[in-house]
Amino acid sequence: MPLNEQLSERELRVLEAVVQSYIETAEPAGSQMIARRFGIGVSPATIRNIMSELEEKGYLFHRHTSSGRVPTDRAYRTYANRVLRRTPSSEQQLAIETELQGRSSALEEILRRAAQVLGVLTQELGVAVAPALDRVVLERVELVQVASDRLLLVFNLRSGVVRTLFVRVPGTLGAESVQRVSQLLNERLAGSTLAEIRSSLGERLRDAHGAHEGRELIDIFIAEGEELFSLAGDANDVVLGSAQMLADQPEFASNARMRELLELTERRDLLREALAARRQTGVSITIGGENDDARLSDLTLVTSSYRKGELSGVIGVIGPTRMPYDKIIGLVEHTSRLVEGLLE
Length: 344
Description:
By secondary structure, the chain is of the alpha+beta class. It folds into three domains: 9-82, Winged helix-like DNA-binding domain superfamily/Winged helix DNA-binding domain (Arc Repressor Mutant, subunit A, Orthogonal Bundle); 90-132 and 234-343, GAF domain (Beta-Lactamase, 2-Layer Sandwich), CATH 3.30.450; 138-228, Heat-inducible transcription repressor hrca homolog, domain 3 (Enolase-like, domain 1, 2-Layer Sandwich). It has twelve helices and ten strands. It has helices spanning 9-25, 31-38, 44-56, 73-82, 90-100, 107-122, 175-189, 194-205, 215-228, 255-266, 268-276, 325-343, and strands at 60-61, 70-71, 125-129, 138-147, 150-157, 161-168, 238-240, 283-287, 299-308, 311-320. It has a five-stranded antiparallel β-sheet with strand order 7-3-10-9-8. Strands 4-5-6 form a three-stranded antiparallel β-sheet. α5 (90-100) packs parallel to α12 (325-343). The longest helix is centred in the last third of the chain and has 19 residues, at 325-343. The protein is elongated, with a radius of gyration of 26 Å. The relative contact order is 0.14.
């Protein structure tokens, strides 16, 4: 059944009341309580009948025969689609701005602070995803000799992004050879995107590695260029706030559930994949079973993309499906816009 197709306005009001009650209390909602608290204008008996109908349609369920109803993922989806996004309070806006405007303007540090402040304000797990770099232009690459057989590569990218990695080299390279190779790389690679460099690196360097003093190092760049100029999937890609923010929520009261959450935070590859498609989508909400990976089936991801030039990434929160969507959507969207402003 398509979402909302067979729900009357009265059914929607009861459904939203049940969802709101469960979000606030984490307790199953009964008809007497819904009638008393939400002023729907019908008797508890009528509300009970409506709740039964909603259960048959897959929006509610009950754990025990005599217990109240609990929302399903479908109910949360209906609620999230209809709820008005609450603008963050002036105090919340000030807290976000103060946290983001720290000493460092480096992108990674801004994202770390964004994930941290979102976690504190929402009591969920804050998350930020660094931009995909394939379309970013390489402005300069620096080779720094840190040992006789080890180099530090510093990639200076347009939009102020810097990435570094270490490379082991055979034998001993002289400082003059390293400088010559560095000059050659910048002459032939600077001004191109990382994707362009990876696809044509061999062609760009093929005539340079024959009798060149640093030919061993150039050979390494030709052989390993696909990996060296990928700069994706590193530890900086996914930034998380503190999982401790979720510790007080009933969903993570047991040691087993908290352990599962902590294990999830170690799976940056899983989170990276779950968030990768959100770079172009504005605000995105994925609830419970809507997540492709079963390990996220009890969680909701609320994110908002940010963009600066060719850079685009994601900021948001991860938490149980029972979350205050109106508050969280507004906070996430506001934070992403502030990050965009700082990147400008």
